[in-house]
């Protein structure tokens, strides 16, 4: 399938939330590479991954694309049911950065190698956003490519009223402020293709 996608003109092979099948990914990529696969391998994840799995992928994955959802254990416990998410995410993102470094784009603006961090800005969550973006700038460097996302909408258990603080869409001023915060903390590579 990877070779078929390459023949169709795809830009990369994107494995989404693949932590539970890392051994199979490694085996499949090896077979495809032996048969002529030349596309970058993308590891698209929540950043709640085992460091051991990421270490097995060193030299195989070209582009890591983790989300960084929450900074505080309290918010992670409430919204993700995983109080340890922030610490795990920081450790995995550090390892990803160690392996591939900053995002490198080719002449057509297509990612070839590196780290691209996504952060969904949440209603009432600008303090979380500030902490995450400040950590990225200081720990990984101001040239870390960050995609701030503004497409949050209430659904599922949020829409039925269990989480009243999240029972609204993101205000346009909140997203504009998140972009200002990114610049204030020194980030220089924000994805400019989307959002306000």
**How many domains would you count in the coordinates?**
1
DSSP summary, beta strand count: 7
Give the rounded overall mean pLDDT: 95
Q: How many whole angstroms does the radius of gyration measure?
A: 18 Å
Strand count, sense and barrel status of the largest sheet are:
7 strands, mixed
Proportion in helices: 25-40%
CATH class: Alpha Beta
Structural class: alpha/beta
| Total helical elements | 7
Percentage of residues in strands: 15-25%
Pattern of helices and strands: HEHEHEHHEEHEHE
- Give the CATH topology: pyruvate-formate lyase- activating enzyme
Quote the distance from N terminus to C terminus. Answer: 37 Å
Would you identify the regions where 5 or more consecutive residues have pLDDT less than 50? none
Q: For the record, what is the CATH homologous superfamily label?
A: pyruvate-formate lyase- activating enzyme
Features:
globular, alpha/beta, single chain, pyruvate-formate lyase- activating enzyme, 16% strand, 7 strands, 196 residues, seven-stranded mixed beta sheet, 7 helices
Task: Describe this protein's structure.
The chain has 196 residues and is of the alpha/beta class. The protein has one domain: pyruvate-formate lyase- activating enzyme (Alpha-Beta Horseshoe). Helices cover 40% and strands 16% of the residues. It contains seven helices and seven strands; from the N terminus they run αβαβαβααββαβαβ. Strands 1, 2, 3, 4, 5, 6 and 7 form a seven-stranded mixed sheet that branches. β2, α3 and β3 form a beta-alpha-beta unit. α6 runs parallel beside α7.
